[in-house]
Design goal:
The complex is a heterotrimer of chains A (100), B (511) and C (329). Chain A is mainly alpha-helical and 100 residues long. Chain A starts with a helix and ends in a 9-residue tail after the last helix. In chain B, the strands form 2 sheets. Chain B has a two-stranded antiparallel ribbon with strand order 1-2. With 511 residues, chain B is mostly helical. The chains are: A mainly alpha (100), B mainly alpha (511), C mainly alpha (329). Chains in contact: A-B, A-C, B-C. The interface between A and C is large, with 81 and 89 residues.
Chain lengths: 100, 511, 329
């Protein structure tokens, strides 16, 4: 097994754990962290292929995409966190349990 | 692709709204609105000029940084993109004018929501960027821009209901875009390119491609609220401010549909099977019936309109089974492809105009009454003739009665269904229209009914009502240039194309 | 040997991800999240992606972790009985619906298991697309920088990077849209904690210099605007915690300028290049290096300002002051 394959397989596992977490977790913060774990899986997938395609240096395109992707994911997560905290501030709720 | 004429318009269409969005940040309440509105008008004007440019020169491209794909990114404005950009401009300009007056009227009590303007301009830039994009990863960035703007606009009222709905919407959007991005990673790993045109040439069928198709489709279905991922849409769209609801339902959800259409037709041809088309069509059909029925059961105007969006988006998914041909049928012999494409484009446009008008009318009614419970619509005709007229016209287009844009969409869809022999979709189209007629006529009956008691209708600026009416009329006026528009659309490679499905192997369950 | 290290790292990442979501207390979740970020950063290093490792450690794990940590003040320490056990199996809230949820849960886990199997097969059987390494290598000399990742970020795919700088600003605007933020606390009393003061006095210049170093050497090696921005953003966060919130000390227009200058300069430069007959972001090869350095510096300033402002605004969303809520729009 090549090095990149260890990580690309891991990426699929992390991605699925993240999806499960988004659906099954209740607390807002856990849901948000689950999306970050999902993202971690996706980014690991990109970077593992970059290692596979290395010549004199690793493929720089996936690296650049992942840096962009991480920043975008963090911006979304910070926004989600702001929403969660504001909801808590207004209603004291920390999950969707009593919503609807 | 590289040999096509280049143009500066694609770059300007993304850059100009961003420039005005950041400029508006330097101003306070009224200045923000003024700069924002100026930006909106200029962007709309630029979009229409770019539209004319494409009608004259055909598909134009812009090679960003001068670096050609696969290393660089290329913006492509073909006639399909031009139509979507033109639609965004027309709908956007009326919503902007409405928003200007609407927020001004409430400035004293709410502060006038000046953040609406930079967020809406960023959203506009994101939408234009999405329609022009020809790169898988760039599409991801544009859908993230759109997603963040959409949720931020949806929670602008700051009420706790809107915040709950907004967080749900945001989590769904992030999950959807991460699923999409996982598919992008797999496609990049297996082909070494992100450019849609190149991908379509080099992509090989196989497990990886099929899985990428699955996660990308799932991700985009979440984003466009396709059944069964529609759960976030009704609360988010109904709890937002009126101009925002109009933007979200008329334009934002169409973005994800546009990518789905492009990717299925331009990239994933090798992996699509007849069954995949049928499955996504089924999701659309269930959405049509379920969404219409839910809309029929609601008691507040905005919830009716929001559930109706779920149904109307379902019609869009129903064109896919017509575009993915049964094994053995060649694209040359399938004479219904043009009908199916026309149905799709007209459904997008007529829904954008009609639904925007509907939500703007709902905003007027909330302004007049303080709430939108439908029993208070009694004698709407007596108090607000123009708004009642707008609701009537927009409703007729949603049902699909002639001579509205909705009629062309549903008629062409039925034509495609019968020509292709897939008669089983026909009852869904008719049933959806009947249910739509049910809730539209329920609203109209109330609007004409005599008032039981004196409802305090507060006066509402006439200009708001005119905006809603003009958008409603727009859903009829788009019929006039139909012949010309279809001829123009046929100049793009994608319009009228179909997927000749592979006989064995390939997709195992995509919806 | 290297397979062993990689396998251990991979298993560790998966274990931490699971623990992060299964931990009964939020505090644990957040701390395991830090560890998870660290494991991922090590994985990036193993895969030769040092830029990604720095970004991951700085933004995804570091900055975001700090935001979560800050949020814990609200969530986990109030009414511990009800709150912290929200996730626990024996939570009285969830006991009633355990039975009714059993079937959907089972379906969810079965579905996910199946999905995982297909996903594993898909990544296992992936054809070798070859990537774009060769293309990047061939054009690197024309890009104006020597480090391939910087070349892709700031030149080959500059459009994406420009949009991304926009996304960070948007993240801040979106947080404003949530409401309930008292725009930048008035300058408080400087921290009377002598230790904190010393930490700030020591770290401010160190972080600044290290950021500048990363920025400048992004041209030739790992580093660049984003990594530098986080370090500069950390200065803003430290000052905020020390009672000197940057945005309430400087004039309003300056704050707005800092937040937008990266995005606007990048765009205006692109437009000027277009006016000169090129495409958007088409640098003349002779000046590409200098232009990229200016763009990166201004982008780093804007990102740092945005990160500082995001932290400052989230930091003030406390539960205690429901009466003082006022809109900032």
């Amino acid at each position: 097994m090549e090095t990149y394959q260890i990580y690309s397989l891991t990426s699929a596992v992390l991605f699925v754990i993240g999806i499960g977490g988004v659906f099954a977790s209740r607390h807002f913060i856990k849901k948000i962290i689950a999306t970050i774990i999902m993202g971690g899986g996706v980014f690991l997938c990109f970077v593992s292929f970059a290692e596979r395609d290395a010549l004199s240096f690793a493929d720089p395109v996936p690296h650049a995409l992942v840096i962009t992707g991480i920043v975008v994911a963090v911006a979304s997560a910070a926004f989600a966190l702001a929403l969660a905290r504001r909801i808590y501030q207004l209603t004291g709720e920390e999950s969707f349990t009593n919503d609807k | 692709m590289k040999d096509l004429p280049t143009s500066l318009f694609p770059a300007l269409l993304v850059g100009l709204p961003v420039l005005f969005a950041t400029l508006s940040l330097f101003f306070r309440t009224r200045g923000k609105a003024l700069v924002g509105l100026t930006g909106c008008l200029l962007t709309a004007g630029l979009s229409l000029i770019a539209f004319v440019e494409v009608t004259q020169r055909g598909t134009v491209i812009h090679i960003l940084g001068g670096w050609e794909p696969p290393l660089g990114i290329l913006l492509r404005m073909d006639s399909l993109a031009a139509v979507f950009i033109g639609m965004t401009a027309l709908v956007g300009v009326f919503i902007s004018l409405y928003a200007w007056r609407y927020f001004r009227a409430q400035e004293a009590t709410t502060g006038g929501f000046p953040l609406f303007w930079p967020l809406w301009l960023f959203l506009w830039a994101g939408l234009n960027g999405l329609f022009l994009s020809n790169d898988l990863f760039n599409l991801f960035v544009t859908i993230e821009v759109i997603g963040i703007c959409a949720v931020a606009l949806a929670v602008l009222s700051g009420k706790s209901g809107a915040l709950f709905a907004g967080l749900r919407y945001l989590l769904a959007a992030i999950t959807g875009s991460m699923a999409y991005l996982f598919g992008v990673a797999l496609l990049y790993g297996s082909t070494g390119t992100l450019d849609l045109g190149l991908l379509g040439q080099v992509l090989e069928p196989g497990t990886t491609t099929t899985f990428a198709l699955l996660v990308i489709t799932l991700g985009l279905m979440i984003k466009m609220a396709g059944f069964p991922f529609h759960f976030w849409l009704p609360p988010a769209h109904s709890s937002a401010l009126a101009p925002v609801s109009a933007l979200l339902s008329a334009l934002v959800v169409k973005g994800a549909f546009y990518i789905l259409l492009r990717l299925w037709m331009e990239v994933f041809g090798v992996s699509l099977t007849y069954a995949a088309g049928q499955l996504i069509g089924l999701a659309g059909a269930v959405a049509v019936i379920w969404g219409s029925w839910q809309a029929f059961m609601q008691t507040s105007l905005k919830l009716i309109v929001a559930h109706s969006s779920v149904a109307q988006l379902g019609y869009l998914l129903m064109i896919f089974p017509l575009l993915i041909l049964a094994p053995g049928v060649t694209a040359g012999s399938a004479d219904w492809l043009s009908s199916a494409w026309t149905a799709g484009v007209y459904q997008v446009m007529s829904h954008a105009f009609a639904k925007a008008s509907f939500f703007l009318s709902a905003g007027i009614i909330i302004m007049a009454l303080g709430h939108d419970r439908i029993e208070s619509l009694r004698d709407l005709v007596g108090h607000m003739r123009i708004t009642a007229l707008a609701i009537g016209i927009a409703g007729v287009s949603l049902i699909g009665l002639p001579p509205s844009g909705g009629f062309i969409a549903k008629w062409m869809l039925l034509k495609g269904i019968f020509l292709s022999g897939q008669w089983w979709w026909a009852p869904v189209v008719l049933g959806g229209s009947l249910l739509t007629a049910g809730y539209v006529f329920m609203l109209l009956r109330l609007a004409f009914a005599p008032a039981r008691e004196k409802e305090p209708f507060r006066p509402v600026p006439k200009s708001l009502e005119v905006c809603a009416l003009l958008l409603a009329l727009g859903s009829f006026l788009i019929v006039l240039p139909a012949d010309y528009l279809i001829q123009f659309l046929e100049s793009s490679e994608i319009f009228g194309s179909g997927i000749e499905s592979i006989v064995e192997g390939g997709a195992d369950g995509n919806d | 040997m290297s397979v062993l290290i990689d396998s251990i790292l991979a298993i560790l990442a998966v274990y931490l991800a699971l623990q992060c979501l299964l931990a009964p207390r939020l505090t644990q979740t957040v701390f395991i999240f830090f560890a998870f970020g660290l494991a991922l950063a090590l994985a990036w290093v193993r895969l030769g992606a040092v830029d990604v490792a720095i970004t991951e450690a700085a933004i995804a794990s570091g900055f975001l972790g700090v935001l979560f940590l800050d949020a814990l003040r609200d969530f986990s320490f109030t009414a511990p009985n009800k709150r912290e056990n929200l996730e626990a199996v024996h939570d009285p809230l969830s006991r009633n619906d355990t039975k009714s949820l059993l079937l959907p849960r089972l379906a969810l886990w079965l579905g996910l298991g199946l999905f995982l199997l297909i996903a594993l097969e898909a990544v296992w059987k992936i054809p070798d697309g070859g990537g774009l390494t060769a293309a990047a290598e061939a054009l690197l000399p024309e890009s104006g920088v020597e480090h391939p990742v910087t070349a892709v970020l700031l030149n080959f795919r500059a459009y994406d990077t420009w949009l991304e700088i926009g996304v960070i600003l948007l993240g801040l605007l979106a947080i404003f849209a949530v409401g309930g933020i008292k725009l930048y606390r008035k300058p408080g009393v400087a921290a009377d904690d002598p230790l904190l003061r010393q930490v700030i006095l020591f770290f401010t210049p160190v972080l600044f210099l290290f950021g500048a170093f990363l920025l400048y050497f992004g041209k030739t090696g790992p580093g660049g605007a984003f990594q530098a921005a986080v370090l500069w953003g950390a200065i803003g966060i430290l000052l905020h915690l020390g009672g000197r919130p940057v945005f309430s000390v400087i004039p309003r227009w300056l704050g707005q300028l800092l937040l937008t200058v990266g995005l606007v300069f990048f765009l205006v430069l692109g437009f000027l290049l277009m006016a000169g007959g090129g495409a958007l972001f088409e640098y003349p090869p002779a000046h590409a290096g200098v232009l990229i350095l200016i763009v990166e510096t201004l982008a780093a300033i804007s990102i740092a300002a945005a990160l500082t402002a995001i932290f400052a605004n989230l930091n003030q969303m406390k539960k205690e002051e429901p009466n003082e809520i006022e809109s900032t729009n």
